[in-house]
Amino acid sequence: MRETLQTTLGTAVEVAARALLTPLFMGLRRSDALRGPKAPGIPRAVGGLAMAGKGFLDEFFFATEVASATMVTLRDRERCRREVDQALALFEEQGWLDDPTGYHGTPPALEHVEIGIGGWGWIPHRHLRFESGYVPHPGEPGRERWMGYEANRTAHAWVLDHPGAPRPWIVCVPGYRMGHHLVDFTGFRARWLHETLGLNVAIPVMPLHGPRRIGRRGGDGFFTGDFVDTLHAQAQAVWDVRRLVAWLQDEGAPAVGAYGISLGGYTTALVASLEEKLDCVIAGIPATNFVRLVRDHVPPLFLGAAERLGFEFDRIERMLRVVSPVAMPPRVPKERRYMYAGLGDRLARADHAHELWHHWEGPHAAWYQGGHVSFLWEQEVEGILRAAFRESGLTTDAA
What we know:
alpha/beta; 9-stranded mixed β-sheet; 13 helices; 41% helix
């Protein structure tokens, strides 16, 4: 009885604190998403009622995240600081900070894939499961903790495939807080990809999301302030996507492309630095730097407090270099790289996309007057997707 009362009281205090802090956090946060990148060939964001409405959707989504996010506690701050120091020392010793490709081993071929009927929903699909096999390097900090996340050790994917002769596949890499098939099918317009364009579709579930979650929400643990866990989550995401792509190719897929949105755009860009045999890669509304995301969204008052508590963001950014999509040259040829971004994006701001565009040497790109959420209905997005699939041979003009 006493423990129940303590739990109830603790929950009530947490809810009250969030209710008070969320408006303060949002009020102190910078709102300069319309700055936009200044570069030849990239348009500038324009204001107006439509852009304001799209910006509101981004802000509303972000506010719900602030109000419900799980974060590390003050008790963990010393461990987090120590693990960053240990990781930097190891990565420096191994040479991975200078050449991050060495950090990423080549995943072995999949030997066993369990294929079952997917859950309820308006699109019949299949559910793939396989052992991820990802293990942090010996001596990496947080290794035992990461391997203790038991549900995360099984990889999952939602699949829409056509009977008959083999068809091209598009591997859709979800963003943060996705991981449920209904959300993923909506976010990727899976029915359009599958039925209208005639593609086979595979949507892997990212680490710590959906059936792999370790907290009360899908995605908890990815961005909680424990940046060593963020490191392992991103490394495992790339590992799992590469294993899935290789399995599809081994099964006889005539062509395979990778298409990611938001955090999935980050992951897809990183895969493009490690895998050459992809027929196209598409980074949608991508982020490129996790620490810059923190600096973009956390008010200076909160950032200063975090620094004083031991979160040294410059050192964290250096550690995360081994999973940065702009720290390694892309292996997928330039003519098979595509991207799109919203010029008024308030979540993954346009300067992230511009950094990737520059790193990718000016690939095919669509810049639309909209935000992060509005990609779902922007005509430019459908246009660049159609062009990517057609030019890379995944679809025909008839599709």
